[in-house]
Design a protein that fits this description.
alpha/beta; TIM Barrel; 21 strands; 31% helix; 23% strand; binds manganese (II) ion
């Protein structure tokens, strides 16, 4: 099957050009002007449209069990929703169960995803239990293409690793080339604050925010960055949410430590005011939504390059379901917000239409940088000969309203309900197959393939 995309404006992180794109089978064959049209099976007219590499979201949680409930998007529904929003690759967090081998967690995620995902996917491994055995498993996983590991300074008794455990994992990663991802919030201190609020009868979602102050995110960022320095490795800070944490990233880099950091749409568009709403549980996630004045600092960092990318931390729980837990105790509300479908449009609308970033920077933040930092450079995140033909024909002018009544995520609310955005994916190709065509679903469960990822080059 040969598909020719004509008359479009090709946007890569490296530049913008008027070019045709020839797709041959699953890969991009030619990017250029006046591409020969013989032996072309299908032509897509992209006049007036942007032709961008399919977006890459390297922070999702499909079907994640949290306590007694499970994130409501399966790999099928979540990746279909992602595709509607212009995302053609996810990297999800396979998660270890306490006391069990990493392998068991990884295999559980393969069962959830293999044969079900509609777009290509990889896994990070989330580690909650650092032992000699799990450290040895890290090397095995790197060889199998699971090249990144998330550890937590939060959630004592569940996901938490102490400083020694984190340092041991960092040394292990230094040997194997794995990348250490950190959830950086001081969970020990947070639990003390949270217990104090609950004891005082202050149990609403608002106090979820107050119990996780930005200073305790900054403290943990500083701590893990200094440990990365001791281990001599880079570290990747997931879901950075605050000005305070950003300041610690800056300081670490000034000392010569390589720190990568992502933020998420919820920290750019939402604030602690949302936690004060009657449906505040919908907005409970960790780190929590911050006071609105943090947003400008995060945008500035996306513009300057201090933040490398935007991921979603997609973790959907129904407002009229699991989010009703914790009515009397915010600690029991399952943490997480949906967003895998909305990221590309939100960043385009507020970033490009809003005059903050260029088209190239937009593609860098949503596609090229995440692909590179996930060890998918050359395959994903770029429109160039030899890359996978994951391509989005993006309408830069179409306005639409984000809403649970129209979105494809399997969750009963949108964090951005009623927000009008400009820009939207018209046609989405995954490895050469059209899977979305002007709102029509043409993809299928099981089309997505597991991506064995490379180790990541340790350059910023
Ligand atoms: Mn996290
Ligand atoms: Mn997460």
């Amino acid at each position: 099957m040969r598909t020719l995309i004509v008359n479009g404006t090709v946007v890569n992180a490296s530049g913008v050009e008027r070019a045709d794109v020839l797709v041959d089978g699953e890969r991009i064959a030619v990017v250029g002007v006046d591409v020969a049209r013989e032996r072309v099976d299908r032509t897509i007219d992209a006049a007036g449209k942007l032709v961008i590499p399919g977006a890459v979201d390297i922070h999702t949680h499909m079907e994640l069990p949290v306590g007694d409930v499970v994130a409501s998007d399966t790999f099928e529904t979540g990746t279909r929703a992602a595709a509607f929003g212009g995302t053609t690759t996810i990297v999800d967090f396979a998660t270890q169960s306490m006391g069990r081998p990493l392998r068991e967690g990884l295999e559980a995620w393969h069962v959830k995803a293999d044969g079900h995902a509609c777009i290509d996917y990889g896994f990070h491994m989330a580690i909650c239990d650092v032992t000699d055995a799990t450290l040895a498993e890290m090397d095995e996983l790197v060889r199998e293409g699971v090249t990144s590991f998330k550890l937590f300074t939060a959630y004592p008794g569940r996901m938490y690793s102490d400083d020694g455990e984190i340092l041991r994992a960092m040394f292990q990663a230094a040997d194997s080339g794995g990348l250490i991802l950190m959830h950086a919030e001081n969970g020990i201190a947070i639990d003390v604050l949270a217990a104090r609020y609950v004891r005082a009868g202050l149990t609403s979602p608002w106090y979820h925010g107050l119990s996780r102050p930005a200073t305790l995110e900054a403290e943990a960022v500083n701590r893990v960055a200094r440990m990365a320095d001791v281990a001599g490795i880079p570290v990747y800070i997931v879901h950075l949410s605050s000005r305070d944490a950003l300041e610690e990233v800056r300081r670490a880099r000034e000392r010569g430590t390589t720190v990568y950091a992502e933020t998420c749409p919820q920290y750019l568009f939402l604030s602690d005011a949302d936690l004060a709403r009657p449906d505040g549980a919908a907005f409970v996630c960790a780190p929590p939504l911050r006071p609105r004045d943090h947003q400008a600092a995060l945008w500035d960092a996306l513009i300057s390059g201090e933040l490398q990318l935007v991921s979603t931390d997609h973790a959907p729980f129904d407002l009229h379901g699991p989010k009703t837990l914790g009515h009397d105790d915010f600690r029991l509300i399952p943490g997480g917000v949906p967003g895998v479908e909305e990221r590309v449009d939100l960043i385009y609308d507020a970033g490009v239409v809003g005059g903050r970033i260029s088209l190239q920077r937009w593609v860098e933040l949503i596609s090229a940088a995440p692909a590179r930092l996930a060890g998918l450079e050359g395959r994903k995140g770029v429109i160039t000969p030899g890359a996978d033909a994951d391509i989005v024909i993006y309408d830069p002018n179409r306005r639409h309203t984000l809403s649970a009544s129209t979105h494809h995520m399997n969750v009963d609310y949108s964090c951005y309900e009623g927000r009008v955005v400009q820009g939207g994916a018209d046609v989405v190709l995954s490895r050469g197959e059209v899977i979305v065509d002007h709102g029509q679903w043409l993809g299928r469960a099981g089309h997505g393939r597991f991506l064995k990822r490379s180790t990541v080059a340790t350059r910023p």
